[in-house]
């Protein structure tokens, strides 16, 4: 590629991004504003697996790129679609986009975006996040019903689990109630750097309504269990409200593998479910029914629950049948990492934990 200090062209930008794609491993979306061919240009690109979301739209002829469609909604822009895996888009005012395929390696959007991170009113990869969460709730209800368990009321741990809890309650024919009031000015707790911060944030985050728990068999719904430490405190709070039984239903499978694509799930030793995976299957690439039952029993004891029900992998596939990255659940990483790369990432994460402990 011929290097230029000015007067860059579309050809220059595409060639530079092609080199970037060849040299960079990981999950990413790229947006840049440049002058190319003497024109104002917005460049958008997405990794070859499309692991992280990227959408684009228009308003008054101008192009807009974001990770979620809600960013376009608040600007009253029109959602045009997704940037495809391995694609580079050249966007200019009042012009049709120019697309370059730099080598898609399939489509493997992160399922955790739909389970936890994305807003429910977003549309990503052509899928409604809210609709996916409703499907997760219906599948979770089947898993709970199969155990022959009973409850008096369904209560979500806000906010992510609300759609799935609603669908679960509908499927089971149980009343749906709001048992917690959430402080909307606190952050996501599981990605906070240390346990002290996570616990303090939880005290500010959720305030219970005692009348919804007192004397009832409560079926609490949450999106996932990562470390389980803040959830244990939430269960204690529910006990303090006088619940006669606490059943917990999780609208995702057990998290037993770390994410190496940008979500800080730390190391495998910190993952709550991984500690209860049977030794003979600890290296397996799945959580078969027997293993999931062992995880549910062990974690229920640790968290002080009457029962714990995870969404099985089959239920996840039924709610989201398209191809996706679910490596944190099944260990099948679309972008393979070498042992050396995994060791480097986990060593760095352990060092971060130690630094936080010292501080």
**CA(first)-CA(last) distance:** 47 Å
Gyration radius (Cα, Å) is 22 Å
Number of domains: 2
Using the 3D structure, state the CATH architecture of the largest domain: 3-Layer(aba) Sandwich
Low-pLDDT runs: none
Number of strands: 15
Binned, the helix content reads 25-40%
Q: What share of residues are in beta strands?
A: 15-25%
* Major beta sheet, strand line-up: 1-2-6-7
SSE pattern, N- to C-terminal: HEEEEHEEEHEEHEHEHEEHEHEHHH
Summed up, the helix count is: 11
- Note the overall shape: globular
Features:
alpha+beta, Rossmann fold, 2 domains, 4-stranded antiparallel sheet, 4-stranded parallel sheet, 11 helices, 19% strand
Overview of the molecule:
The chain is α+β, with helices and mostly antiparallel strands. It folds into two domains: 10-107, no CATH class; 112-358, 3-Layer(aba) Sandwich (Rossmann fold), CATH 3.40.50.2020. It contains eleven helices and 15 strands. The protein has helices spanning 10-23, 70-73, 111-117, 129-146, 162-172, 195-205, 229-240, 289-303, 313-319, 327-330, 339-358, and strands at 29-36, 39-46, 55-59, 62-66, 78-82, 87-91, 98-101, 123-124, 127-128, 153-156, 180-182, 206-208, 217-222, 245-250, 307-310. The protein has a four-stranded antiparallel sheet, with helices on one face. A four-stranded parallel sheet has the order 10-13-14-15, with helices on both faces. Helix 4 (129-146) crosses helix 5 (162-172) and helix 6 (195-205) packs parallel to helix 7 (229-240). The longest helix has 20 residues, at 339-358. The chain starts with 9 loop residues before the first helix and ends with a helix.
